[in-house]
Amino acid sequence: MTNLRICLYQPDIPGNTGTILRLSACLGLAVDVIEPAGFDLSDRNLKRAGMDYIAAVTLTRHVNWERFEDWRAGTGRRLVLASTKAAEPYTRFGFRPDDILLFGRESAGVPDHVHERADARILIPMAPGQRSLNIAMATAMIAGEAMRQVEAY
User: Quick one: 5-149 is in which CATH superfamily?
Assistant: First the structure.
């Protein structure tokens, strides 16, 4: 198992969040959700995507960004933001076993003040003219590489 964590900043699509929770359950990763979410976290679409795996996830809800940052300050963990505005490819980044992998809202990413607080910013290189991947796909790619690097299994 690993101490890596996945963090979702104000997610707004329940199906994507459910898929990420299922991924996290299967990989043994804890998940932080920074609220407000764009849907009720008990939404049936979330449950449908996450199926019965959601019960196996260590999920921590933070009522807002400030409360998350207060919590994180006490952990000493590094915050690694996945962003289309970053310059460093995730495959060249050196992950640590206790990193928090932060993913922004599907509709808007993260605001500038959150971007500035990240300790590192990484991106998934894409073909010219393409904007972004589905958040669940991006989370799986980056979490998989982080786990490979820290030899989580």
Answer: SPOUT methyltransferase, trefoil knot domain (3.40.1280.10)
